[in-house]
Amino acid sequence: MVSKDDTWERIYRELAKCAYCGFCEYACPTIKYGDFRRQYGPRGRVNAILFAMRQGIITIESIHSIFTCLECGACTLHCPAKIDVAKAVRYFRALLISGRVEIPEKIAKHVPSIKRR
Ligand code: SF4
Ligand code: SF4
After folding, report:
1. Which residue of 14, 25, 28 sits with most ligand 1 atoms within 8 Å of its CB, as the best mutation to test the pocket?
2. Ligand 1 in reach of 86 Cβ (< 6 A)
3. 105 partner at 20 to 30 Å CA-CA among 46, 76, 82, 95?
4. Average pLDDT of the residues of the chain
């Protein structure tokens, strides 16, 4: 797994405040779409990132979840703990794209790549 920096600790502490209440889900424009349902909402995204941080496990469903967030921030407005899901998603996407998180090849191929010209 990736070496943990200050940002990692900050994001982890923030996501760990999630009570899984689901108040955020009503505001999320992406939750209705895709094959994995709740994974496409903020609660699912918090869960996917926390699972990766705690267990070091990233699944294909987690990657779909993390890369389909619009980073609109609507969930944060409805969250009692004001968890910034978009910021956590942005951070974890960067880790995945940069290859700083070790994942098996068959999972890694689902991570979108950034091609430089
Ligand atoms: S920031 Fe992502 S998880 Fe939150 S409401 Fe927007 S699309 Fe949904
Ligand atoms: S509203 Fe906040 S605390 Fe509740 S599930 Fe969503 S992110 Fe977690």
Report:
1. 28
2. yes
3. 46
4. 90
For 6-108, CATH number?
1.10.1060.10
- Over residues 51-77, the pLDDT tens digits come to 999 999 999 999 999 999 999 999 999
The residues spanned by each domain of the chain are 6-108
Cβ(73) – ligand 1 distance below 6 Å: yes
pTM (predicted TM-score): 0.91
What distance in Å separates the CA atoms of residue 41 and residue 43, rounded to the nearest whole number? 6
Q: Interior CA angle at 44 toward 38 and 48, to 5°?
A: 135
- Is residue 44 within 6 Å of ligand 1 at its C-beta? no
Q: Taking the C-alpha atoms of 116, 67, 107 and 104 in order, what is their torsion angle to the nearest 10 degrees?
A: 70
Whether the CB-CB separation of 108 and 102 falls below 8 Å is answered with no
Residue minimizing CA distance to atom 3 of ligand 2: 18
Closest approach atom of ligand 1 to CA 71: 1
